[in-house]
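Regression test attached.
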Amino acid sequence: MSVPPILVPVVGLSANPLTDLRNLLSYPFMVNAFRAGAAIAVLASAVGWFMVLRRQSFVGHTIAVVGFPGAAGATLVGLSAFGGYFTFCFLAAVLIAVVPTTTGRAFSDENAVTGTVQALLLGFGFLFASLYGGNLNGIDALLFGNFLGISNGEVVILAVICVVTVAAIAVLWEPLLFASIDPAMAAARGVPVRGLGAAFLLLLGLAAAGASQMTGALLVFALLVMPAATVQQLTSRPALGLWMTLALAVVVTWAGLAVSYYSPYPIGFWITTIAFAGYLTSHLPGLVRQRSRRRRHRQQRP
Amino acid sequence: MTTEHGESTRHATVRAPAGDGAQVVRLEDAAVRVGERTLWSRANLDVRAGEFVAVLGPNGVGKSTMLQVILGAQTLAAGSVQVLGDPPGMHNDRIGYLPQRRNFDASIRIRGVDLVRLGLTGTRFGVSLPLRRAARERHRHERRRVQEMVDLVGAHAYAGRPIGQLSGGEQQRLLIAQSLVSGPALLLLDEPLESLDLPNQMAVADLVAEICRREGVTVMIVAHDVNPILAKLDRVVYIAGGQVVSGSPEEVINEQTLSRLYGTPVEVIRTTKGRLVVVGEPDVTHHHHGPHGEPLDDAHHHDAHHDAHHDAHHHDGARRPEEGRGSSST
């Protein structure tokens, strides 16, 4: 993502929401941001739903962090940060999938080596970004998100990656679910648990790279984890949960885009904040239920 | 010392052995080696359709490994094995398998009924949209089958709750439903009663025996404590000292056979309540509930502590002295 042609227009809201919406969509860069946002939200949250189920958040974060020096390095040598994210995240995913682990499931728990490599890569990313011209705004965008200057071509690529990922998840749905919840049993029944784990890491690489485009390398959990975690509070039906996660992620992303268009604050902040608000809200039904149960309990006891 | 043979068999012979069915598992002169060590050898076993078989023995003797052999996941060092008439691994879709205790993290937000359903659909790649009539029909059939199994194990009340929030006994019932949902001919259960409390042990044991009888499923159950399942057993496979003995419960769990297996005098005491207590069984390892997960893991702990513990203890390792005093067998 190069420096945008138009700086963020801090426009006041009018009395008519329809006018606001029309304003919002009158700029091609905003239309592209909404399109890309939808593709990214679906891609990231669908994979994220499984990532949460498989408890592989750490590996998701690692892959996203690898994307940062990739994007910064790509900018430095005059390529697009867009490609840098995808190349590096995907390569990181391939590497993690190929390198054997003792536990069988890659990076299911924290690993000192990964932490060390993560720190080094963040350092390199910072170096690349500094060499590029000490443009601090560039670093902010790479780490914390930016929605400006998404080209038509990039929207198409994002859409293709999104469709491919969703199709892959649809085809792998039952065995991947089985292998994620109950790997021992799935393996005994002949499900290729290791192969599915590797395939999932590749999808996670794509998802982490995609999410980085919108939220930056450090805030990917806003789309990878938060929608899934929110929906898990509301339903434990797998298929319904996945659909709700996709819908929620799109709503959060679009809301974040709209709000940051009208506000001086950055997109990464808005997406995480809106997603977090949803997460808090999702706890309300559970809390109310618990409360009323406790009250009933108290009433039953004389 | 006399054997128990012939006396007080009110529990052990409630059912006549169902040994006239088709051959389900057959071991001939089989031996298993893990690493450099031979776990057991010269094992002969003939399990017939509909039988309820317990695989007993101390920790680390290779009970789980025997199930792995039947699944084709562990190759024999010598001898031969046939499962459902063919070499192992060829009919695993007709085998229901419940690995050693798996714990579901409390944070797993997937319903119990989904877990059961995965036993039926979890191996299926591809998208099956209920667009065509046949696909809709199959969906309906699968839903019905899953519901049947949930009802069969008595999990109706909690099958809709997240699996991580259920108790150990409730999870175990759902897992049994999962291993049964595809309609297997052979059910392999690896210590399904472990870490359940006593009432739940009895209930799950009754349930498995009932299913075995009603659905005509052959059951092989690895157990640490024979007592909860003693009344239902057709056959006992006892592994100790690198040897495997199989036969009716009375033929195997007696002082002669076990003393020969262990190579040291062992007493078998039957309590007034009909429970069997083996006294003087050498303690292979101090960890009665050794490492879980890897079925082969406990094999490595074998011989770690070969100092024989000659205190009376139950098969399950829990010491309840008041029961040990109950009756005399010698």
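Expected vs. actual: identical. The interface with chain B takes residues 53, 55, 170-175, 177-178, 181-182, 184-186, 188-191, 232-233, 235-238, 241 of chain A (CB under 8 Å).
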